[in-house]
Amino acid sequence: MGKITVKSLLEILFVSFRLGLTSFGGPVAHLGYFHEEYVRKRKWLDEKGYADLVALCQFLPGPASSQVGIGIGVIRGGIAGGILAFLGFTLPSVIVLILFALFLQGYEVVETDAIHGLKIVAVAVVAHAILGMSQKLTPDIQRKALALFALIGTLLWQTALSQVGIIIIAAGVGYYLFKNKDKGSGVMTHVPISRIFAYTCIVLFFGLLIFLPILAKITAFEWLYMFDSFYRAGALVFGGGHVVLPLLEREFVPTGYISKEVFLAGYGAAQAVPGPLFTFAAFVGGTMKGWFGGLLATFAIFLPAFLLIFGTLPFWNALRNHPKINGAFSGVNAAVVGILIASFYGPIWTSSILSSTDFALAAFLFNMLAFWKTPPWIVVLTGAFGGFLISII
Question: So where does this one cross the membrane (predicted)?
Fold first, then answer.
């Protein structure tokens, strides 16, 4: 990597913005788009470096595909490059979802048949994600068992800390069980971030995680409570946007900030836009507090991703060549599959599939995604129209 210039930074913004407009299909699809654009076409990163960066981001909590994009931006253009890569990839979907939230507020179309169809779209999309991720992340009996453990644990132990505990256990099991499966390649990648800055980011990550809930409770300030809720969602969720759904649902639906119908309608609509699924937070924040609420929710839920990427990339070369750390990555990836299946059951399935006709539509939409390779935006429109047809059958 040569000298960072204004031209290279503008290139990062332009390329990531184009990806932000066209990257449909969720985190697994985003990684494919990134590989094609950043590795094969532009060669900003080699194959091994990209695979190791993906593994690191799978291990970290937060939106894995967004963290990969930020990481590539950092490697290419330093801290400014990471921020620009994020903004380009994220802003298109943030703007659309905030507008959708304001539309729902203004016209009160919560109970429409099309919205029910969008909720069924979420069923098909998550089922498709589970199928793809399970094939790659649980290739043997040991990792399938870890996924089953994570599934059962998540369903039976439904607390804010359940996913953290399950991930830690899975990492420990993988650390010992798979420690000799990948010895590392010895490849080194230049990361233009100082270790002092990295340590500062790690301290800030844990400091906010510990003290924000305390401050929110002491002050009872609504905006601080909102910021804390989204920050914890971004800091404690493994597996990407699909898994953040139950955590945000527990934070805002029981407290009355947003109804379950609006919540799931927004999640279904989030499938229709390109970019990261974590931008669903923009919809939730926009529903609660308008434009500023949407932007604040977006900043809060992605802040942990920035702090963790900035905090770990300078140590990445040592981590990626450590066989036991690679084993921990394998264990975490398997647990992610189980957590994803648990979130698929509740609230996605239980709140969307209310009849055999709903299931038939979900099966049809799944077939469009998995076998016909239909573009996701067409699947979303089909689901909305299918919801209307169900009402007149």
Answer: 12-33, 82-103, 115-133, 145-176, 196-218, 230-248, 263-284, 291-316, 328-346, 376-392
